[in-house]
Amino acid sequence: GQSLEQPSEVTAVEGAIVQINCTYQTSGFYGLSWYQQHDGGAPTFLSYNALDGLEETGRFSSFLSRSDSYGYLLLQELQMKDSASYFCAVRDRGGGFKTIFGAGTRLFVKA
Amino acid sequence: DSGVTQTPKHLITATGQRVTLRCSPRSGDLSVYWYQQSLDQGLQFLIHYYNGEERAKGNILERFSAQQFPDLHSELNLSSLELGDSALYFCASSQDTLSRKTQYFGPGTRLLVL
Fold it and tell me: Which pLDDT score, from 0 to 100, does residue A57 have?
């Protein structure tokens, strides 16, 4: 079957660096994405990794290791506005390229 | 603004009723995805359409159905509604090419079943 695991909650202080991990189990991996969702809002795309390694987009970076079925999202220079839920998602060839989302990690940024 | 539109924004109805949620994808996007998000829950994938054809199905209930029309807009039909169907329903669209798989989410339809 398909499943993703990520921590339910992370707390960090403004200006710090935080890493949100995601481990996955799929029947046919086809890429790991990260989305941000503020309360009451729609998820917005942050990054996508299809190959091993680090992808950097401004203050956000995402890493993937396909051999370990593991990825992480790295947020640097945290700002209060980064307080939100972060979801990892995989595209799974099993069942015709379903998109499976993790349960989400709630990030609290403190002053 | 993602470019994906969903109507209505809010919907209040009673158990046993049927509702239709509508989604218009971003211009040029051929794929439409539907998700359900219950209170403080993650996103549950329901169904994916690509250029009018069903591509993948998640844990979508038999009471729910969807379709994508020739103009690429999509509708999600929910029937025999139950209290537990109260949730946020998002649609997302993407180009769904080899290199462009980013999903752009609409603002969602908040459904309340009383």
Answer: 87
Contact B42 A103 (CB under 8 A): yes
CB contact under 8 A, B105 and A87: no
Question: Phi/psi of residue A80, each to 5°?
Answer: -55, -35
Residue of B nearest to A97 (CA): B56
Residue B97 is encoded by which pair of tokens?
């090419």
The beta strands (E) that lie in A58-97 are given as 60-65, 70-75, 84-92
Inspect the interface and report whether the beta carbons of A42 and B103 lie closer than 8 Å. no
pLDDT at B101: 74
Name the DSSP class of B58: -
pLDDT value at residue B1: 84
How distant is the Cα of B110 from the closest Cα of chain A, in angstroms? 10
Which residues are within 8 A (CB) of A93 and not within 5 positions of it... i.e. 6 or more apart?
Answer: A26, A27, A28, A29, A30
Q: Measured between alpha carbons, how far is B50 from A36 in angstroms, rounded to an integer?
A: 24
Note the pLDDT tens digit of each residue in B19-57. Answer: 999 999 999 999 999 999 997 678 999 999 999 999 888
How far is the alpha carbon of B106 from chain A, nearest alpha carbon, in Å? Answer: 7
